[in-house]
Amino acid sequence: MKISSAAQMRQIDSDAINVYGIPEIVLMENAGRETAAEAVKLCGGSAGKTFCIITGCGNNGGDGFAAARHLLNGHAKVKIFIIGNTEHFTPSAKINYDILMNMQAEIYQITTERDWNRLQISLTFSDCVIDALLGTGIHGELRENIVKCISILNSCNRPILSVDMPSGVNTDTGAVNPVAVKADITLTLGLPKIGLIMYPGCNYTGKIVVNSIGLPYSLLSQDTIKQEAVDCDFVENHLNKRPRDAYKGSCGKVLTVAGSLGLTGAAALSSSAVLRIGAGISTLASAESLYDIFAGKLTEVMTQPLPEIKPGILGDSALSVLQKMADSYDTVLIGPGLGRNEATCKLVRDFAVSVDKPLVIDADGIFAFSQAPDELKNIKQTPILTPHFGEMATLLHISIDDLKQNLWEIARKAAEYFSAVFVLKSEKTLIAYPDGNIFVTTTGNAGMATAGSGDVLAGTIAGLVAEKLAGNVAAPIGVYLHGLAGDLAAQNGQAGLIAGDILAALPQARRQIDKC
Questions:
Q1: Regarding predicted confidence, which is higher, 153 or 141?
Q2: Overall pTM surpassing 0.90 (yes/no)
Q3: Does residue 128 contact residue 153 with C-beta atoms inside 8 Å?
Q4: Backbone torsions φ then ψ of 74, nearest 5 degrees
Q5: CB burial class (10 A; 0-12, 13-18, 19+) of residue 337?
Q6: Fewer CB near the last or first residue (10 Å), C or N of the chain?
Q7: Strand 430-432 vs strand 421-424: parallel, antiparallel, or unpaired?
Q8: Which of 180, 198, 225 is the last residue of a domain?
């Protein structure tokens, strides 16, 4: 599902009006009708129910005015409260406001303390609240009267429907400054917005309902919108179905180069995830002195001892062995728990640029390139890197704060500059492609913030790369299935969830896709 920025949505609206000839008032009418319908669902009817609608003076407020008319026609009692200067209505909002005035609707402009008291009393006796205050029209810190209004709404203990965006949530980042409406339902118009997907904004949305309000599909699906939310339908459309005549060699073969003294768990988790997600063969290549450890940890994963420069540490002596091994595999995963010895880092870089195989580079493999990041551009096939914020900041030689401040743009530029796919792990993992496209996952939970979770993700993605999915979508599908496995594991509680729980749930997560 495409997701839009505020500017992209404004352009879509403009094109619908100026290119396709759909009058703005028609779009507002559609939005108002759909808002009223969702509010009626939320309240279990309209007749005899009381709705309190909070509006601004822009088009979001106009959507609220149109909704008020439909609710009044449904024999509901409606009270409308306006925050702002009524001399500054947008033209379409003014039309709907005037209609309500002609209908003798109860409309109050909040200007005095008595008006605030009336709002609080009305909320107390309402069955449902409609937030049509700001929508996508938030810029910077909220004004004092807006903050006061949102605080009152959040304390009213009534179901809230937000129109387009919960007021106070930044459309493009999900930031909240300093408060936002805590909605039970957000009816978002045209396309979902970035701020509805990202934290902390997604904590305020409640259930998200998307309605096109009659906007042409060609506008909502255009290639210039380079953000997409990965949902079950996306995964179902791109994930391979296993044929009845499959055998282990046809299901993908992955070579994992991982592990060092004290970090054997990362290697075991990542190489096991390769099999749990569906690959047929997984081989773990690691320092020879670690062989006995892996023989005890792993049963289904094959192990390959590598020559080491000191116990548990790989160096240039392993390069030729790995280069020869890689010829027999569909995909190579390198980095989980590999260590940061200088000789190991050089091995990672020399190996990565010498092989002509799909590469997934994780953890210490990414750190190896932070010492010479431009060497990433010398990798023969487009690599997939799976950094968390700290690893990404180290690779780019910027601070984590700077990264977070401009996350989407930095991810896009890095993917283009290095000709790499970046899986930027966070509360809402982003997958950035060199062509500017960004995918964001819709699965996962806080319980997955646990040691080893990223290792399972790296193996999941590597296993899917080995399946040779059409469209180069192994990374977003891997992130989605990994998150879904985490959600399934969290049914027993988020606190105490471990990476092994995610690993064990991967087959069930993949099976769930058949139920889409």
A1: 153
A2: yes
A3: no
A4: -95, 15
A5: buried
A6: C
A7: antiparallel
A8: 225
